[in-house]
Every structure is written in C-alpha cells, then in structure tokens.
Amino acid sequence: MSAGDALHGTERAAEADPGARARFEALTLPHLAYLFRLAVRLTGDAHDAEDLVQETYIKAWRAFDALRDASRVRPWLGQILSRLVLDRHRAPAHEVAVGDLVELDRFSLYERIDEEDPFPYSDHLHRDFLAAFDDEDVRRALRALPEAYRVPLVLLYVEDLSYKELAEALGCPVGTIMSRLHRARKILERELWACAKRRGLVKDDTPWR
Amino acid sequence: MAMTCAEAVQRFFAYLDRALVGEARDELAAHLQACLDCCDRLAFSRQLDAFVRERLPDSPLPPDLEARIRGLLREA
Question: Is the ipTM of this complex over 0.95?
C-alpha cells in the first residue's frame, strides 16, 4: 500500500467525524502487543511483522466504519492481519506448489522414525527424535510452509479456533481449511525429516515416499 | 465395514482439532479401541502438534511501534 492510499483513507474518515481517530486508537491500540505477537508467529520474521502490523492499522482505520461490534475488535484486527498475510502471497492462478500431493498425503514421520530407528536403545523413540530438534529447526520448518498452509495452522495453534471460525476468518470454505490443516502438518513432518537428514540424525537416502 | 488404518490416519488431524463429529468420529473411536498401532500414531501427532505450538516464533514488541502507528494515523 502506498502512503498516498493510506493518507486518503485517513482524511476521509477524519473529515466525517473528528473524534473518530481518537476512538479508533483507544479501541485498537491496546491490542497492539497481541497483534505484533500474532504477526511474528504468522510471518516468522520480526521486521515483516512490524510492516504487517502497521499495514493492518491503516487498513483497519480505513474500514473502521465496518466494525459493528466494538467488543469484537481483537478478532476483527486479527482477521485483517491474517488476510493481509494471505493476500501478500496469494498464488496467481493455481494451487500453491508443495510437491506431489499424493506423496505428501502419504508421508508419515511416525513411520519414517520407526523404520530408521535413529535411537536403537530408546524406550521413547519418537519423543527422543523430537527432542533432538532445537527451536530454530522448528521455526525453519514453519517458514517452509507456504502462507496458505501456515496461516490456518498458526491460527489454530494460537487461537484454538474451530474449522468454521477459521473458514470465516480467512474467507474460504470449511473443506479448504480441513485439507490445508492436514497438509500443513504433513509438510511440517516432511521438513522435520529433511532437517534430521541434514543434521545426520538419520541416514535415510530414499526420496519421500 | 470397519475402518482401515489408512482411513483412520486421514482423519487424525480433524479428530485432534475436534472437527470430527457424528458417525465419522464414532468410527474412528471404534478403530482406535481395536488398533494399538493407530493409538501410537495418533499420540505422536498430538505430541508433534504440542511440540510445534510451544516453539512458535516470538519477538519483543518494538518500543516505538505504537508511536509510529499513531504517527501514520495522524499524517494527513
């Protein structure tokens, strides 16, 4: 969004009601910390998150008239922010590329760990496997998710929303949410397995199967 | 007809997300009663969800961000 667009919206709303901006700030700025945290989680990057939050406030201000229920301001802001992340990265015509979907759906980290057995003396093989990763490994795996998959998954983790609520927040059908959340986890599993291979935790050299 | 393991696995995430209802949920529950292997797989999926959830990125709020936003809103 250009600065000119933002200013135009600000002028319009302020002209209509001089107290509007003060009301807007009083209502929305208490949610700044929440929004920034959500933005960091959705983007995985603090600088991106700053830009995103500023853009969210401008967009929300321009759409302030559309907020019917002031008690819903936090989810309203969260929805604007989440959709901005999706819109920024919306794939042009086709589905976001995540490789062969049949192979992806069939991928099972649980089975790979079982087959490879990286900790032969462990009584808690799968738990020990996860414990070998540090926070940055997990964050890198999350960043590898295309936004269309990462946004619903992070919202599910952070907000504990139902599929219906996620569908409303992101403006897509419930079936899409369901398949995206399934595949988001599968991509994460695949990324963690790739990370384990890079780390030499496992020596698997077969392609994803 | 009883649910296969492959069918059960396809429903795990919806089950964990409490999005599985009615017959679909009952069928999976019945399968889990009988299949220890799927119980272990489901437990791992739950564990992995919690593992990732606890490691979501975080960063302190930049102290000047509120002032910058107020400035942006005021520019007219």
Answer: no
